[in-house]
Structure formats: C-alpha cells, structure tokens
C-alpha cells in the first residue's frame, strides 16, 4: 500500500510538471490592438541624394524605402540619420510613392514649392515636423501635396514642400499659411514655381510667386 501511495504521488508530480511545462511553452496572450498597424492615407517613398560630383544628379538619387503605416514610418525615422548628420550637399526627399522627386515628373512640372531656410541646429526638428504634416494629411488641400525635400548646405539648410499646381492659388496659399502656422514661423515664407527655378537654375535668383 505504501508503494502504491508513493507511485501515485510520483504520477501526480509528473502530471503537474508536464502541465507547468505546457503553460510555460504556451504563447502569451497578445492584445489584438498591438497587432494592428494604422494605415496612412498614402504610401510615401523616402529618397536620399548622395553627394558625388562624378555622377549625374539622377544617378546620385537613392530610393531608400516606402512606407504606408504609422508604425512603419516611425520604424524608419527612428533608425536613420537626421539632416544634421548627413554630408553637406546631401538631400532627403519624401514623396508620394507614384511621384519621383524631380521637376520633370508629370506630377511636379506644373507645380512649385514653399521653401524655408533655417539655422542648421533646427533642421532635424523642422524636417520631422514637415514630414508629419505631410503623412498626417495636415493640409486641407492634401491632394495638391507632392512631397518635401531638405537640402543640407554649408551655412544653412532649406526645407521645401512641393505642390502640384501653381495656378491653384487658393490651395497654394492655404498650404503655405498652414505650414507656417504648424512650424510656428514668424518670418515670411516664399513660393516659387518650378519652371522659374529651372530657368534660373538657382532658387536664390528666382522670383517668388506667393508670399505668406
């Protein structure tokens, strides 16, 4: 009888051990909300222009990646260098996925850009704020938004928002005012048409079409 009791205790211990092992190997319950990604209204593509005077401008453009959810955006931007960390002469460009970041693209050739110049120590924050305005559909006329660029230069950096149609005056001005307000800018910002910039080949010598 004592042997039977001992055997029974051993069996119970074995069963308990197996049960604990199964519990420890079972996947933890995961909140379904954690598995859901939050889609953006558009898919966006990030480009990087590397400084290389031996290459043509178009050959220096590198398509980094595309994203279409909030989570994928933060995963990207938390792991890349900010404008303050890339080489002088380099550019970041963020555009809707079907638009290439060049004046000649069909989506850009009738458009222009709002441009701000800033102290280099502010470029990281201003660039992130600009990107959040784009992907968060901050602008009422978001259909007019093509993308944005940041140009890293020796003394100052420039950030621009590109729009599709310079003749759509109401939309262009509304985008400019909203952008200025969101970035908390006090100084005027200026809008230049791409066709004028292409002729002058330098935005510093290009007349401004709109000012806010």
TrEMBL record:
Give the SUPFAM superfamilies listed for this entry.
eIF4e-like (SSF55418)
Which UniProt keywords are present, listed alphabetically?
Initiation factor, Protein biosynthesis, RNA-binding, Translation regulation
Q: Which domain of life is it from?
A: Eukaryota
Bias (Low complexity) ranges: 1-19
Region of interest (Disordered), residue spans: 1-27
GO-annotated cellular components: eukaryotic translation initiation factor 4F complex
One Pfam entry for this protein is: IF4E
- Biological process terms in GO annotation: regulation of translation
GO terms of molecular function: RNA 7-methylguanosine cap binding; translation initiation factor activity
- PANTHER family under this entry? EUKARYOTIC TRANSLATION INITIATION FACTOR 4E RELATED (PTHR11960), EUKARYOTIC TRANSLATION INITIATION FACTOR 4E1-RELATED (PTHR11960:SF8)
What family does the Swiss-Prot or TrEMBL record give for this protein?
Belongs to the eukaryotic initiation factor 4E family.
| Protein name according to UniProt | eIF-4F 25 kDa subunit
From which organism does this entry originate?
Anopheles melas
